[in-house]
Amino acid sequence: MLRFYIEIERKLSHGSNLERCEVTVRIMKIKNTTLLLLAGLLTAGSFVACGGSPSGDDKKTPENTSTTTAVDAATEEPDPFADFDYGGAEVRILVSANDYDGHGSSLFTIKNEEEETGDVVKDAVYKRNKDVEELLNVKFTFTENEDNYEAIPKTLQSVVLGGDDAYELIIHDLFPLATLSMSAYFLNACDNQYFDFSQDYWYEDYMSDLAFQQEDVHYLLAGDYFLDILRTAHALFYNKDMFNTMYESADELYTHVQNGTWTHDVFLSYITDAYQDINGDGKADENDQYGFATVGYWGPSIPWVIGSDLTFLTYEADGAPKLALGNERSVKTLENLNKIFHNTASYSYADVEALNNAFKSGNALFSAYQRVRSLETFRDMKNDIGILPYPKLDEAQEYYITSSHDTANVGAIPMTCSKFEMMGAVLEVLSRETAKTVMPAYYETALKVKYSRDDASAQMLDIIRYNISCVFPVAYGNYCANLPLYNAFTIPLTNKNTNFMSNYEKKEKGAQKKLDELWNAFKEQQQ
Predict the structure, then answer these.
(1) Tag placement on the chain: N or C end, fewer CB within 10 Å?
(2) Distance (Å, whole) CA 458 – CA 268
(3) What CA–CA distance (Å, rounded) separates 378 from 375?
């Protein structure tokens, strides 16, 4: 099966003429098929944002991977970048400032304030950026971009195809950038001598999964510097006060997680008896009490599907990907989703605001469609809240799996960048310094201390963080005829349909054809 696990913690010439020549040649290599691929995506309405997508069998756990504590300077080796001097060169970064779903932009983790403010995370970002500027003698310039996932492809198309050397780095939504990466819009970071992807502050499995598991190909960059990946990781929230009233102890959920018994069936056992007709009108409405609160089916179903440890793809001997969801595990997942979402104790609110208000007011035991960064939203909630990973499909499943949102901000160096070698050094140092200072500030101080309310919740955060997974279906599912997630699970779920195989088999051939096109476009730009 395909799975990756993310541990969120943690080459000297500057030949600008050579770099610019290389850019020119690569732009000329954009071929008709890749342009047609992109054109089809831009005109066919194939971008579908989900509300809430892997490889490698070695699971990383909080106990053996946590390196969020700042490194002791006394034990550090000499800085390999100490003698670098880029003469005050400008580093122009186009960074998303969009907050389309109300969960909060991560701009503050990239762009620093003009001065220190007293906010622990913002001050860590300020110090990181200033330290990197001083070390490498560069100057960061940030351009805030409000484009959503539908608009950003056209913006980048005008830049790259127009040959405009406007930015050294793009930081934006995962799934539109993933599709652009198949069309020769970005430089391959593996061609840069300064990147060291063996370091823990890079999420190498995550990046490889976005490149069909191919070695030495990273068009998209993921790591500690791109903190939005953690902030958009899906998590399940619950009202601890309500749970304590209904059951013996809210901490028994933590025990389930720790014992590996936190499953779909266990979740169902807790929500089934939670419904109460609070207003006494004899009908289920938004003013009543529920066991499971959600908002629609598309977004909220994604972490359940991802968390079920499904085999989305297999790979042929030549590396070609093949869809592989037609199995009993997928059948069982859809059946369980119907039991959960169409339960008499479950309710779908009109929008995220209504969902959050219901949870804050104590009308819901569990709340879906939340991310790690939602801890920031609920910091003023009167009732105690707990945070959990999404349940496993069954106890036979070895690990909990966390889905990162499809609009998580990742990085890319545009094909028009004339400072490619310099950007390798800049991003390597930025990532290193983020791991030392910004990640500890956000993760240990902001999340674990400021927002989470007990030590066990902090442990749950570790489990969520170290199990982020399933990038491919979130990043590319929209292009594969929307089959891996939307058509295979969300549409049947919406229609209360539990016949997975019948629906899947009707659409598999067409989806595989689109996946083949994606694979061929990817191979073509390697030539």
Answers:
(1) C
(2) 24
(3) 5
- HEC string of 390-441 equals CCECCCCCCCCCEEECCCCEEEECECCCCCHHHHHHHHHHHHHHHHHHHHHH
Fold match between domain 16-45+88-231+407-461 and domain 234-403+471-507: yes
Asked if CATH classification 3.10.20.310 holds for the domain at 234-403+471-507, the reply, yes or no, is: no
How does pLDDT run across 367-384, given as a tens digit for each residue? 999 999 998 888 889 999
51's CB contacts (< 8 A; 6+ apart) are 101, 295, 296, 298, 299, 300, 302, 369, 405
Residue 75: predicted pLDDT: 61
Are the C-beta atoms of residues 133 and 139 closer than 8 Å to each other?
yes
Phi-psi region of 351 (alpha: psi -120 to 50; beta: other; left: phi over 0): beta
Measure CA 138 to chain center.
Answer: 29
DSSP state of 263: B
Contact of 54 with 156, CB cutoff 8 Å: no
Q: pLDDT tens, 341-366?
A: 999 999 999 999 999 999 999 999 99
- Token pair for 136: 């490498």
**Residue linked to tokens 């601890």:** 240
Map out the domains of the chain as residue ranges.
Answer: 16-45+88-231+407-461, 234-403+471-507
176-202: average pLDDT: 95
pTM of the model: 0.84
